[in-house]
Predict the 3D structure of the following.
Amino acid sequence: MIERKKELGRDRVSRLVSWGHWFALFNGFLAMIVGVRFLDSVGTPDTWLGWGYLTLSTIGHFSFLAFIVYLVMIFPVTLLLPYSKILRGYAAVVATLSLCILLYDTVIYDDYGLHLSPFVFDIAWEDLNALLQGTSYIVTPIGILILELTAANFLWKRIDKIQKVNCGNKVVAFIGICFVSSHLIHIWADAAEVHEITRFDDTYPLSYPATAKTFMESQGVERIASNNSVLPQPTLSYPKAALQCSVTEQPNMLFITVESFRADMLDAQTMPFLYQYGQQNQRFNEHLSGGNTFDSGMFSLLYAMQGSYINAEDLNYTSPIFTQKLKQQGYQLALFGPQTDPRPAAIFNDFSAQISQDNESMAETDIISVQHFNQWQHQQTAPWFAMVNLKSPENFDTPVGFLGIETVRPNSPLRPAQKVLFNQYRQSLNFIDGQIEAMLADVPANTLVIITGVNGKLFSSNHAESRSNYSPANVQVPLIVNWPGYDKAKDVNYRTSHYGIVPAIMTQLMNCTNPAREYSAGRSILSPNSETWTYVGNNRQFAIYQQNEITVIDRHGKYRIYNRDYDKRLKKKIGAPELIQVMREGRRLYNN
């Protein structure tokens, strides 16, 4: 009798386990349907190759997620409480909650471009009213629960018939093949740089496609070059609409960009010419670069968009709309400076590059760049736009035999090695001051001149430290503007950034009537901004500058909050409203 009861108990558990597998399969299918919503955010494939991979990945991934939920949440209860009525109700509730979380994730991903995590959930909770509109957030869970209860009862009543069909092993084998195949295909696509496949890497939650990077690097194997890489169709709306510009005057334009140019080092002793020049023109005293590196700083200057867009695939084939318009209007565009390999790849496509070959001394390279510019601008008969990039301060460099200026005591406490770099940096800026004077000595009077830093500078030779540091020393840069027709000197004391230079020029000098937000972050240096924050950084790490604090966030959602001088870490939670605005700005120009 006892053995009979044990046998019946084992049979009941076996039937419940079998039922649970089929219930998990059903929910995997529902998860696939919900997962289609992610494609609204990233776009659908453009080739049969992309569709084939996405189909295999979708079947394998969501079936795997459903099985994991079953294994962790339902299977243990099957062993502890092997009662079908209890288990069916419990499983239906678990499945409903899981699908609702997945649905919520699709909403957040569409709005923020990020999947759910404790950090993102904390932010999204503050924005719940905007994310969940109407009554769907009440009706949908109830509808899903009714569907889950119906499916659970339907499968339980027919579990014996399903078992007799004996197709479970075939279904498992099919899902397993889809799962493994999608990862094998991704290994090949990652090595061959097939973007039609790799662009879906972050589309699904908890998705970690396999790669062979570590193995190939350990074996000394280079990444496979593929001539058949399929590029995705543009997903970035840049600009949002065709620009309407009517140019009546065509002044020459000169951008002098100095790498590693700190705002607090522009003084009468270090840079006497530029200091005096600033007194006679517009000086922006609270100006921030868009980044702390050359790439992010130059990106924010020419594209006028925050650095979260810096890796957008489309921009590798699309030059800044600013330089496109200048070229269309007959301007001669030229870039002077050392060889660079910037991101995005197309940022300088509209320029004819006057590359100064790298010498042992970067200062010598800068001298050659200035000479090339002076020769070039005298030869021009049409309106021109020139960008001269000077790099000596990045390496604390000066020419051999440069006399420079006397050393001084730093205003703030520095370590002995930093004191040496501090004064060497001053020598380099003093050298750059002379080069700027040589450029401006013979520039035509109708020239718009903009002098600024690409990024700031730390008194350190540790490049890793510089890349992760978002202090004012590393991102606050000088900005001096000489507008043709405006002779009055002016101090501008509200906060501005690189994002506002191009919109100001396109609105004031090029008479573009489109709202600036259609082709940029929508800011202008000519008036204070309504936003209380400024984005500084790239798509992997960035800082949010606010009035009295600086928040630094990495790509994993970890954040640190500092006071405005960046010398004290604050123990407080991140401000959700500003971060929500930042995240939405990072998605605003993508197609929906």
User: Anything to note?
Assistant: The longest strand covers residues 252-258. Confidence is low (pLDDT under 50) at residues 215-234. Residues 265 and 315 are 34 Å apart (CA to CA). DSSP finds 20 helices and 15 strands in the chain.
